[in-house]
Amino acid sequence: MSTISPPQNPEVNPRVKAVFDDIRATRGNDFVNNLWHYLAFDAGLLETTWRDVKGLMAKPSHLDPMTKELIYAAVSIANSCEYCIHTHTAAARAKGMTDKQYAEFLSIVSLAGRTNHLLNGIKVPIDPEFDHENKD
Amino acid sequence: MSTISPPQNPEVNPRVKAVFDDIRATRGNDFVNNLWHYLAFDAGLLETTWRDVKGLMAKPSHLDPMTKELIYAAVSIANSCEYCIHTHTAAARAKGMTDKQYAEFLSIVSLAGRTNHLLNGIKVPIDPEFDHENKD
Amino acid sequence: MSTISPPQNPEVNPRVKAVFDDIRATRGNDFVNNLWHYLAFDAGLLETTWRDVKGLMAKPSHLDPMTKELIYAAVSIANSCEYCIHTHTAAARAKGMTDKQYAEFLSIVSLAGRTNHLLNGIKVPIDPEFDHENKD
Amino acid sequence: MSTISPPQNPEVNPRVKAVFDDIRATRGNDFVNNLWHYLAFDAGLLETTWRDVKGLMAKPSHLDPMTKELIYAAVSIANSCEYCIHTHTAAARAKGMTDKQYAEFLSIVSLAGRTNHLLNGIKVPIDPEFDHENKD
Amino acid sequence: MSTISPPQNPEVNPRVKAVFDDIRATRGNDFVNNLWHYLAFDAGLLETTWRDVKGLMAKPSHLDPMTKELIYAAVSIANSCEYCIHTHTAAARAKGMTDKQYAEFLSIVSLAGRTNHLLNGIKVPIDPEFDHENKD
Amino acid sequence: MSTISPPQNPEVNPRVKAVFDDIRATRGNDFVNNLWHYLAFDAGLLETTWRDVKGLMAKPSHLDPMTKELIYAAVSIANSCEYCIHTHTAAARAKGMTDKQYAEFLSIVSLAGRTNHLLNGIKVPIDPEFDHENKD
Hints:
- 6 copies of one chain form a homohexamer.
- By secondary structure, the first copy, chain A, is mostly helical.
- Helix content of chain A is 66%, strand content 0%.
């Protein structure tokens, strides 16, 4: 159950059509997933969201594409964002993630959840050796 | 301020000494960071924590070492675990992360935080295309 | 799927009936939403929850009614509480929120999610200028 | 660094004094911890917070006192609330928690953090056997 | 909707069969819940997860069985892990939790959620009295 | 302790200087808070962060300025982002928030934290009445 209704014919709005066309062109296929249909209720929100997702996730950069999706999915798991978990897990697979790598990814995310809770419980003081400023 | 006091001479306990020795051997240096000193208040907790961190993070596997640290750090940021953020950011640097890659990592973590909140707010229904079971 | 079953005829319990009657009177209609039906499994929990929600959200106070619902919904999004997101988004609409305001609300919640993650990642020290005690 | 300054002489306000006196009487000692000094900036917020903490945590009930503190501390760890972690860990100790029990508590909280992340990552469907309604 | 498909005949893999057999033997019944069926996509992940859950939750220890389930459920609620909430609430009931105790458990979890947010909002400094190190 | 060192003379980089100048001009004073000094380690990250914060928070829009800061602060509290809590609580004060309003804001954030945990614990099904799509 969603809090908004996606517009019936979103592409009658030329700003929405421009974003949808760019999504299709960037991805090289015709599938526009639900997220963008729902965001189309407000063209400005749609435009800024797509601009930033495209700018960061859809072109060559300093980190490889699969690693970027894994970072994204890891945060989404910690935040319990089900939609983001599904889309970025699927994207990581599309960018080459094997089942073995996925099992290892889940193990690391889980280990982080475990030590995060352990350390938040104990509140261990941070070693001065990890102070980046003083190491430079 | 921590909820426990680390034991004064932890290595008089042979189980603690065995873990500390293995930490030093695995990492190839003498530095044993605070986490392990604090966990030494309970040898069992120290042993199982080190066993799992070592097993997953310290040996060759299906994901490269820097990617593993970035996944770990990403979860730690979403969970606000300050100690884990510092140690795993430092570990990512030690495994080759450049400043450009760190800025990109932070951008992706932040973008995920943003879209996680956006999608948790709207509760967009998940597209059937992301259903892994039905795609197989 | 819920962890408890709502009582079949909750209003045979006079304490439950008194709360349900007050919900109807306060809101000026007959709709008692699921939350209260489920909480009716324990009259004490029902009474204290309604007392505090009514006391804070249902009468004139220092913040305007729509702002109060937006604050409530913002926390609920960050906590991934789907039921609360739906009820308080609906309440904000009932208190005058337009689609333009909702899109802006979502943008701010998302921006906060983004900078929260960015700053939790970097752990920027807090400027002394923000120390309320020293400014007085 | 706090967002508010605690009032200098809070007990000149008779409503604040009444709460502080009740805190001392309930606990049987003269120590009023920082939380209450800071909340004293608004007598109403102080009164309702103390009323509810006292009502739930300070008298005999259906769960034993140490278990109640452990539940409280567990949530506080997952929410990264440092002040609450310190006060409720201290309270659990005061109510009998041994070091062995504390190590086990931390292990369970950490295991929960780990499986929470694992299951939020996979999104395993809930077994119908756990549906309370259909079992009754 | 899950991100993975559980293997059709998981017990043809002898490592999976060994874990499933141990789950049945440990619990004294034939029910193997969904979690283990899904984790069976990777035998290693299945083995380490079961090893740690069994080691901590399924045998006599320093905390009583119901208290352990309540701690686990409390963390799962704070982390919005729906599957874990259902399984550990059910387990707490199986280990003796009454409706009155469940209502009290929910009240404490909720009170913690409330004061966690209150104190994270104000950032009250931690009293030196709660510093375990300086008290010893 | 931060994970990065802010550049010593950030404004020798013309892209950084342009952002700092715009921050000063937009706010009408010379104070550039720590966040921007730290982000200056990467000009691109600095530019996109400032662009979006300015675009959303610094000009007239559909929600009033104080409400916008309260929404931002509410999310930051739920996410335990200490830096954001301090800056946006200060900004809300600068935009007119009184102590009475702040106490009410904290009460609503806390009430939301409480009912979020209560409802995440029970998993109450969402009433069809809150389904926006079917109401239109």
